[in-house]
Backbone:
């Protein structure tokens, strides 16, 4: 496990870290200077497509009375929920489109089809996760705050069930994220009572989660009249598909073999911009694939680029990925990228491997990454 207390992350010298930071800053600034009408047109087009899929899917489910219509409607609804969650909601709430000054597409006003209240999610995700990426005990996105995520963590018998718990988490991911955003796990594990402020926050989340569940599982089926069973099944399927898909994408970006975790006994307030960049580079992974895959992942298939530049428009991550990879190569850092199936399999292998005591299941990493990873984890003299 890498320590970010080390002043030379990734085995780089302070001068190299500074130069790396300057090169990545230049990439970011180039996008900031160039963003404009085509970026605004992109997000508006994606929103139109998402709403068309949702309305069209609902109409087909309402009017159709055969299995073909159910499959078409359910597929459209599933895609609508995925786009709303991934490419639109996640990125709008990041503030990626605030520069447009469009009050309808702004991080302070956007409402998404999700159990987490936007403000709560922004605090937990934008402020906490993106500041303390892959730091054990500080980043709940790393193993969702409930799993063993590194060999250096002491093994305990309760970790034996983490593959099962991870599968359950995938199915209820929307509600799991809402719970994690409340930091309830810390209170439960520590046996602490909820403060009045935390109880009020939990009540807001509960009300929103119940409202979301009522919308999908009560209101829409009720509006379908005699076809309510088909609509209920379609909504349940779409929610499940969205949850499992989102969970898989997040796992691929944070948890596969070859991604580093960090320890931070005390918060290092002096972490430089370059050091923060290196931590994002070592603690992230990408998914290789076609443009449709990138769209459906919310461009979190470019998780490395997103962690480096969370405020840039998501449609630009694919464009800058080759330049970012050049920086990796220049400083001899491992750029972890695999196709979707391999990345999901790698992440699940790690979940199972770390559920067991060290050494019970062999670690698997691509052969071409091993020399670089040995260098990264070696302590400088």
Residues:
């Amino acid at each position: 496990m890498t320590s970010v207390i080390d002043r030379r992350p990734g085995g780089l010298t302070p001068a190299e870290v500074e130069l790396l930071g300057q090169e990545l800053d230049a990439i970011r600034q180039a996008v900031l200077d160039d963003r404009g009408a085509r970026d605004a047109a992109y997000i508006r087009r994606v929103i139109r497509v998402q709403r068309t899929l949702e309305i069209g899917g609902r109409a087909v489910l309402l009017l159709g009375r055969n299995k073909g219509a159910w499959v078409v409607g359910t597929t459209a609804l599933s895609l609508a929920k995925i786009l709303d969650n991934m490419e639109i909601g996640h990125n709008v709430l990041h503030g990626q489109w605030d520069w447009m000054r469009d009050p309808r597409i702004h991080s302070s006003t956007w409402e998404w089809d999700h159990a987490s209240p936007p403000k709560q999610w922004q605090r937990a995700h934008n402020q906490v996760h993106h500041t303390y990426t892959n730091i054990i005990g500080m980043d709940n996105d790393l193993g969702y705050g409930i799993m063993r995520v590194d060999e250096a963590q002491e093994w305990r018998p309760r970790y034996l069930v983490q593959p099962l718990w991870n599968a359950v988490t995938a199915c209820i991911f929307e509600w799991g994220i809402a719970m994690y955003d409340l930091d309830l796990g810390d209170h439960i594990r520590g046996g602490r009572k909820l403060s009045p402020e935390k109880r009020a926050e939990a009540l807001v989340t509960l009300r929103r989660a119940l409202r979301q569940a009522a919308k999908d599982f009560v209101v829409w089926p009720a509006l379908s009249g005699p076809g309510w069973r088909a609509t209920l099944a379609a909504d349940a399927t779409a929610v499940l598909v969205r949850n499992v898909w989102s969970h898989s994408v997040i796992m691929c970006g944070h948890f596969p073999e070859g991604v580093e975790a960090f320890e931070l006994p005390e918060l290092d307030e002096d972490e430089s911009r370059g050091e923060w960049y290196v931590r994002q580079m070592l603690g992230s992974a990408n998914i290789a694939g076609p443009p449709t895959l990138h769209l459906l992942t919310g461009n979190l298939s470019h998780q490395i680029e997103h962690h480096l530049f969370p405020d840039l428009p998501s449609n630009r991550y694919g464009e800058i990925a080759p330049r970012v990879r050049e920086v990796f190569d220049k400083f001899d850092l491992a750029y972890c990228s695999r196709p979707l199936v391999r990345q999901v399999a790698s992440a699940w292998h790690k979940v199972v491997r770390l559920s067991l005591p060290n050494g019970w299941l062999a670690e698997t990493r691509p052969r071409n990454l091993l020399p670089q990873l040995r260098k990264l984890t070696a302590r400088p003299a």
The chain has one domain: 2-34+113-377. The two ends are 17 Å apart (CA to CA). Residues 2-8, 365-381 have pLDDT under 50 and may be disordered. The beta strands are 2-3, 262-263, 286-288, 337-339.
